Automatic annotation (TrEMBL):
UniProt keyword Transit peptide, yes or no: no
Catalytic activity: 2 [molybdopterin-synthase sulfur-carrier protein]-C-terminal-Gly-aminoethanethioate + cyclic pyranopterin phosphate + H2O = molybdopterin + 2 [molybdopterin-synthase sulfur-carrier protein]-C-terminal Gly-Gly + 2 H(+)
Pathway: Cofactor biosynthesis; molybdopterin biosynthesis
Classification via PANTHER family: MOLYBDOPTERIN SYNTHASE RELATED
Full protein name: Molybdopterin synthase catalytic subunit
Domain of life (superkingdom): Bacteria
E.C. code: 2.8.1.12
First-level EC class: transferase
Family: Belongs to the MoaE family.
Assembly: Heterotetramer of 2 MoaD subunits and 2 MoaE subunits. Also stable as homodimer. The enzyme changes between these two forms during catalysis.
Keyword set, alphabetical order: Molybdenum cofactor biosynthesis
Keyword Ribonucleoprotein: no
Length: 148
């Protein structure tokens, strides 16, 4: 069994940038025990709801509770799967349509593991983490997002 990782905040203010994602991935290229990486990027969609188009989502969270849930998901994934490393980041604040709001990155010696682990992690985040999104429409009206 792997050593337990210390709990850290997974939140980033605003959109998660391609530079941040690239730097996170780049750090792992020198680890020769890794055989596979897998990435999930959650992007804000410009959904049309009741004739109005979503232009952004404003994310809020019960941060302490959410960080604890993210930590539990992380620990559970390390116990279930042969992972070398994992990064999870979620946006807080306003993220515009087309921008990244969730970044999950896993690495393992084996290819099959990263696919299974990533699906497990993303589904657990959607089901268990208290992060809430307020959809902001082009006309500046808003509604609370329904998970989908």
């Amino acid at each position: 069994m792997k050593d337990k990782k210390p709990m850290k905040s997974v939140f980033k203010e605003g959109a998660i940038t391609s530079e941040f994602i690239g730097n996170s991935i780049y750090k792992h290229q020198t680890k020769t025990s890794i055989g596979a990486h897998n990435i999930f990027l959650g992007q804000v969609r410009a959904d049309e709801i009741n004739g109005k188009t979503v232009s952004a989502i404003e994310y809020t969270a019960y941060e302490d509770m959410a960080n604890q849930k993210f930590h539990e998901i992380r620990e559970s994934a390390f116990e279930k799967f042969d992972l070398t490393c994992m990064h999870i980041y979620h946006s807080l604040g306003t993220v515009k349509a087309g921008e990244i709001c969730l970044f999950v990155f896993v690495s393992s010696p084996r290819r099959k593991v990263v696919f299974e682990a990533l699906e497990y992690i993303v589904e657990a985040i959607k089901a268990d983490v208290p992060v809430f999104g307020k959809e902001i429409f082009e006309d500046e009206s808003h509604q609370w997002k329904v998970n989908s």
